[in-house]
Automatic annotation (TrEMBL):
It comes from Paenibacillus oenotherae. The lineage of its organism: Bacteria, Bacillati, Bacillota, Bacilli, Bacillales. It comes from the Bacteria. This is DNA mismatch repair protein. Residues 7-18 have a biased composition (Low complexity). Residues 1-20 are annotated as: Disordered.
Length: 212
């Protein structure tokens, strides 16, 4: 884990209203980005990205900070915090989406494809996503198979957007049990073709680690 440094409650007003000053830790902007990238690596996001990009779904498409052969030239808190529908779904099913969202709510200055995050920020919790790489591999394999089976270009990308929209809607109707149930049903239907993923998820929920 990167450097969550000593508690420093000296600037509790700089951001996040949920944290109390006694719990705040000072952390550099670059360390925040490192934490996010490492968490995504532990989650195995690259397996899913590989399939998504091969099917024309890259979220970096058209970005002026993307250099061919070199990748992103502007690491920032915004793009690190942002999750597409597939990654959101992965964290939603494994129970880590709230933790992810809460962590990034503490990081100010996020913008579109760039950030205005101060060089030092204060957070009151760590980002600790366990290794769920096998789950990502399973989801990636499901997506690959779906993309092959559906001739329509962009099938899995449309699916990604639908899942994304439904998971976002869950948050906006937090107090409406009926709506929540309806949206959860939608997510279940949309994700029903993810058979390898669901098998791996059951293993993960039973034993903490899937055996594929
Ligand atoms: S949209 Fe999601 S899966 Fe696709 S490349 Fe971006 S982060 Fe990866
Ligand atoms: S700034 Fe964001 S969208 Fe642009 S290349 Fe970097 S990660 Fe991709």
């Amino acid at each position: 884990m990167s450097s969550i440094m000593e508690s420093n409650p000296s600037n509790p007003n700089s951001q996040g209203s949920n944290a109390t000053s006694s719990e705040l830790h000072q952390i550099s902007r670059l360390s925040v980005i490192d934490l996010g990238i490492r968490a995504l690596q532990d989650a195995g996001s690259e397996h899913i990205c590989k399939v998504c990009i091969a099917n024309g779904g890259s979220c970096c498409n058209g970005c002026r900070h993307l250099v061919r052969g070199l990748g992103c030239q502007l690491r920032n808190t915004s793009c690190t915090a942002w999750l597409c529908g597939f990654l959101k779904y992965l964290l939603y099913e494994t129970g880590h989406l709230q933790e992810w969202n809460y962590f990034w709510e503490q990081v100010p200055g996020q913008d579109y494809r760039e950030d205005f995050t101060p060089e030092v920020v204060f957070v009151d919790n760590r980002l600790s996503i366990p290794s769920i790489r096998e789950l990502s591999e399973a989801l990636a394999a499901d997506l690959e198979e779906l993309a092959r089976a559906h001739i329509a270009i962009g099938f899995i990308i449309t699916l990604r957007e639908k899942i994304d929209k439904n998971i976002d809607r869950l948050d906006t109707c937090r107090h409406d049990v009926k709506k929540q149930a309806r949206i959860k049903r939608n997510i279940k239907i949309l994700s029903s073709p993810f058979q390898r993923f669901h098998k791996a998820l059951r293993e993960y929920q039973l034993h903490g680690s899937p055996s594929l």
